[in-house]
Amino acid sequence: xxxxxxxxxxxxxxxxxxxxxxxxxxxxxxxxxxxxxxxxxxxxxxxxxxxxxxxxxxxxxxxxxxxxxxxxxxxxxxxxxxxxxxxxxxxxxxxxxxxxxxxxxxxxxxxxxxxxxxxxxxxxxxxxxxxxxxxxxxxxxxxxxxxxxxxxxxxxxxxxxxxxxxxxxxxxxxxxxxxxxxxxxxxxxxxxxxxxxxxxxxxxxxxxxxxxxxxxxxxxxxxxxxxx
Amino acid sequence: xxxxxxxxxxxxxxxxxxxxxxxxxxxxxxxxxxxxxxxxxxxxxxxxxxxxxxxxxxxxxxxxxxxxxxxxxxxxxxxxxxxxxxxxxxxxxxxxxxxxxxxxxxxxxxxxxxxxxxxxxxxxxxxxxxxxxxxxxxxxxxxxxxxxxxxxxxxxxxxxxxxxxxxxxxxxxxxxxxxxxxxxxxxxxxxxxxxxxxxxxxxxxxxxxxxxxxxxxxxxxxxxxxxx
Lengths: 228, 228
Prior knowledge:
By secondary structure, chain A is an alpha/beta fold.
């Protein structure tokens, strides 16, 4: 029997689902049978983005809703929002995130004439900050590095790169490790405890810097993982 | 004509050349025709480490010397020292590093019961700290992530991973990009300005964390670089 048959499907809310990163991830998950709700401050814009995905995937289960409604109905909530305003947004959604698997893809980056750089985040990382704001939140950091353009593109899988996953809740981390399949065709790489998000988040600055230098869309692959 | 014929050879001092990372890098460079001097606080220990390399590479030009003497005679100086004591050591060698290509491989890491983590470095990164201490130093950050054990091992090339290089001096950075050939068989990846060392240095914590989880020696490869 194909392994695919055993993959669990989830009801996933993508907060910030109208942004390029969120929409790209939502597209990949919807394509692989997950039920996806895009969240936005505006239900209309969330529905418009869901329609864009549905146009590409007529058989998918994808819809749009205001952020709180999207989060309330989901098993897994993905934070794909800009760092600017992140803390207030998470605080406002905290009741709907309590006890759930919450995956943060947030990249706290700044840009100046020298290029991109990692911002100094008071709580260490966006993922740790969210963990501190959500009661019983099962925070995971993952999907920081995949390019929005590539996610939305035609490649069947982004199998030239890896999704790195960190977290302190092993079961929640396992969900993100599995959800990586829809993106890279393989397990996400368990990179350790939640505080490793301090390295994963600003690593995006390295990739953007490489992209600029080589006029490419770079990705990060981890070599040496057994069984690959 | 083979491209190899055009590779420049350098007289390289590896400060901290008796440590596993420094000795491994020195071995790779010596193997590829560079003239390597291992530096240590003790000339005797530096010579002993040089002998170990010479035992494996009878045709190589490799020697050992006290750190200052090693640095004084080199065109390229590689800092492969622990972060603990790094600033004082760089200060003590500053006159011998002035105006030279200086490649920092220093990883400021801490370890506790949650695993490895990036230390808070007052100057942003070890490489930037060294740049501030060396008059006219042409600082480059590179070779942070290659495993000491793999460097010293039997693999012809570590071609499953990349050397990431950052710096503000384009010519100095080009030297490190080229020196990566002896390790990975290909150019190092230009990851941008020197301050990107703030991301490159603690990324080693991610790899060590993965190594522990998967009982492996992981490496980082960058996908999407043109011409590969």
